[in-house]
Write a structure and sequence with these properties.
By secondary structure, the chain is an alpha/beta fold. The chain is built from 9 helices and 8 strands. The chain is 36% helix and 12% strand. It has a 6-stranded mixed β-sheet, sandwiched between helices. It has a two-stranded antiparallel sheet with strand order 2-6. It starts with a strand and ends with a helix. About 2% of the residues have low confidence.
């Protein structure tokens, strides 16, 4: 599902200061019940707060208050590295209450899919340690701990797993990968890539489409991507240097060796 973004600009934003976005963060607004009322609050300079988007029960429509490239003011120290949305909901909602808002949850999943595709972030649920460390993925405000302002939203009953599953199942081609890809991408981007902890179900020969997806994730995060020569070289090394050596530099760049860590571990 492609979302329509209703623009209600907020003056409460600032530069990311060169930081790369690695977190997709879901909040609850704890007051506003529509994207319009939430936008009105964020539009007031005196409020001193904002979020990139807001989501209510309107099917296929979300509010947009701060553009992606800027830092919204909603999660303290985490703001520079996060793209964030506010659900027009309450953290005190029960599981039964959340189930009464399917359009809100579907919009949230579609928003996650769109942001993941835009920033090259894997659609994986982060632990608090990963969110507060260097992990790349999706989390709730509560997962950011004191670094994110010490909040408790979206609440213990929020159906995060269901929303993540919906986000993986739809959207653009960039997010249309099987669960095994996201497990592999999570392991590749958030861990030491220990071969002994390699996710189950990942094929021995990684499909080219997976490498393309991983290239986008790593490339967007590090502000560079693998060249075709680097990709050819990594594939060649991963095959125990079988076949003609690709047309690559005689002196391999240091970054290529870093990118090659996974390729070596999978042989």
């Amino acid at each position: 599902m492609s979302l329509t973004r209703k623009k209600i600009p907020s003056p409460n934003y600032s530069s990311r200061g060169g930081a790369h976005v690695r977190l997709i963060v879901v909040h609850t607004a704890e007051g506003a019940t529509t994207i319009e009322s939430l936008g009105s609050f964020f539009a007031n300079p005196a409020s001193g707060v904002s979020s990139h988007t807001g989501i209510d029960d309107t099917p296929g429509v979300i509010g947009e208050y701060v553009r992606r490239e800027y830092k919204a003011w909603t999660a303290a120290g985490a703001n520079p590295v996060a793209v964030q949305t506010e659900l027009c909901a309450f953290a005190s909602w029960s599981k039964a209450e959340w189930s009464k808002h399917p359009a809100m949850l579907e919009n949230c999943a579609a928003w996650i899919a769109e942001e993941a595709a835009y920033f090259g972030i894997p659609i994986v649920k982060l632990t608090p340690g990963q969110a507060q460390g260097s992990g790349k993925g999706v989390c709730q405000h509560v997962d950011l701990g004191s670094w994110g302002g010490g909040h408790f939203d979206c609440g213990s009953s929020f159906p995060m797993d269901d929303v993540i599953a919906m986000a993986k199942g739809g959207g653009d081609d960039e997010v249309g990968y099987p669960d095994e890809f996201w497990a592999w991408a999570d392991w590749y981007t958030n861990t030491s890539r220990d071969p002994k902890k390699r996710p189950a179900g990942v094929p021995n020969d990684i499909p080219d489409s997976w490498w393309a997806g991983q290239k986008e994730i790593v490339g967007l995060e590090n502000n560079h991507g693998m060249s075709s020569g680097e990709r050819d070289w990594i594939d060649w090394v991963a095959k125990n240097k079988q076949g003609p050596r690709p047309n690559v530099p005689q002196t391999i760049p240091e970054r290529w060796w870093t990118d090659n860590e996974w390729a070596v571990s999978r042989t």
